């Protein structure tokens, strides 16, 4: 990796360098992130998949990405085994995947307060795993998201939201509703009754922008009649992505709430 970083550094010293996007998988160690950012000061898109060390049983501190490097970086995706939060104030797109962020609620909220994001993805980030009362995080989280006027895409797949998915309807409430046009709630064990309550709130709030709503891989087949009621209420406001997933013939839904 050090050889690659040195090669990148030399490449970016060349005035004719036109590289704007870089993707590297199976990187070992958090320090390489800062090395790459230092070596590539004008990079616009970075995807690093940082893998855990061989001995994952040893308890290690959970470092966070707090340095401000590469102000031109517009699009970054981190895939870590620990819990970082990006802090680049110029970020337009932030995608975090398969990270335990259950202990990072304050950092998330602080980051969102000064964000100019257009797209945010927390996929399989265990956001609510340590919440005794889930609303205590979700309500300020939703308010922080509503404060980002530039945000258009929010992806929360595989976060075990379940009944808490109802709270996401609050994005479109009040005097400053969110301008989000794509909301991904797939694989969150949302049941038909919960979807109906979400739909009723959305019907009340009436989002200004038409919403693309991803509901795939939720056990909506548990009550087809209630599912139908919910979808009928959502159709005037949403382009719905759904499926015919048979939750009773698979263990995926069970695993999602373990």
TrEMBL record:
Keywords: Leucine-rich repeat, Phosphoprotein, Repeat, Ubl conjugation pathway. InterPro entries: Leu_rpt_41, LRR_dom_sf. The keyword Phosphoprotein applies. PANTHER family: LEUCINE-RICH REPEAT-CONTAINING PROTEIN 41, MUF1. This is Leucine-rich repeat-containing protein 41.
């Amino acid at each position: 990796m050090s050889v690659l970083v040195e090669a990148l550094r030399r490449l970016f010293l060349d005035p004719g360098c036109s590289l704007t996007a870089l993707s590297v998988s199976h990187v070992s160690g958090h320090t390489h992130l800062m090395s790459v950012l230092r070596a590539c000061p004008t990079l616009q898109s970075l995807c690093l998949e940082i893998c855990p060390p061989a001995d994952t049983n040893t308890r290690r501190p959970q470092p966070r990405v707090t340095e401000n490097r590469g102000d031109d970086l517009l699009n970054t995706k981190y895939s870590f085994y620990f819990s970082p939060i990006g802090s680049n104030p110029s970020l337009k797109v932030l995608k975090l995947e398969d990270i335990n962020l259950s202990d990072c609620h304050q950092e998330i909220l602080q980051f969102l307060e000064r964000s100019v994001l257009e797209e945010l993805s927390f996929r399989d980030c265990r956001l609510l795993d340590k919440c005794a009362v889930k609303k205590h995080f979700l309500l300020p989280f939703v308010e922080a998201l509503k404060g980002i006027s530039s945000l258009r895409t929010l992806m929360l797949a595989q976060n075990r939201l379940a009944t808490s998915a109802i709270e996401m309807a609050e994005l479109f409430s009040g005097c400053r509703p969110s301008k989000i046009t794509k909301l991904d709630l797939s694989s969150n064990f949302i049941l038909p009754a919960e979807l109906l309550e979400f739909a009723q709130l959305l019907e009340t709030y009436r989002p200004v922008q038409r919403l693309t709503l991803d509901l795939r891989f939720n056990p909506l087949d548990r009550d087809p009649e209630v599912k139908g009621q919910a979808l009928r209420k959502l159709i005037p406001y949403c382009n719905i992505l759904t499926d015919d997933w048979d939750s009773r013939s698979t263990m995926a839904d069970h695993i999602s709430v373990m």
